[in-house]
Write a structure and sequence with these properties.
seven-stranded antiparallel beta sheet, about 50% strand
Length: about 140
């Protein structure tokens, strides 16, 4: 996972994950217990700034000690959780051939109404750009 780093990349010889926003979290998790490079079922997440509905924050109007301003959550709020989108890129080198599908998911991890899109590896590299939704399921079916 990458948290709050614009242009940040974490990688190894098989996979990389890139954050394309200066805030939030971008992550990849294998659902089948395999390493990401061998997984056939991967959750991709991209979550920007988040807060509960009705949350209120109190910010000090004068300097307090060495701090220019202090703030505290006055009312933590309730659901629904309001989230800004974040952007990420997941790349797998040596991706197995076959059918790769990217399905948007809701916050409970269930498919939402959006249609899945097919992603094809090019020269053995699978590149998945994801945003505008907090969760995606990347799945693979061998042919």
């Amino acid at each position: 996972a990458i948290a709050g780093k614009d242009g940040g990349v974490i990688s190894n010889e098989s996979v990389s994950l890139e954050s394309s926003c200066g805030y939030g979290v971008v992550y990849a998790t294998a659902l089948d217990g395999e390493p990401l490079a061998a997984s056939h079922s991967i959750i991709l997440g991209a979550v920007g700034r988040t807060r509960n509905s009705g949350q209120t924050v109190e910010i000090s109007s004068r300097q307090r000690g060495v701090h220019e301003r202090l703030w505290r959550v006055r009312e933590p709020g309730t659901t629904p959780v309001l989230m800004e989108p974040a952007k990420g890129v997941f790349t797998m080198h040596g991706a197995p051939p076959g059918k790769w599908m990217l399905q948007p998911l809701n916050l409970l991890g269930q498919p939402n109404d959006a249609k899945p899109r097919m992603i094809s590896p090019k020269d053995g590299t699978l590149r998945v750009e994801f945003d505008a939704n907090p969760l995606f399921l990347l799945s693979h079916e061998a042919q």
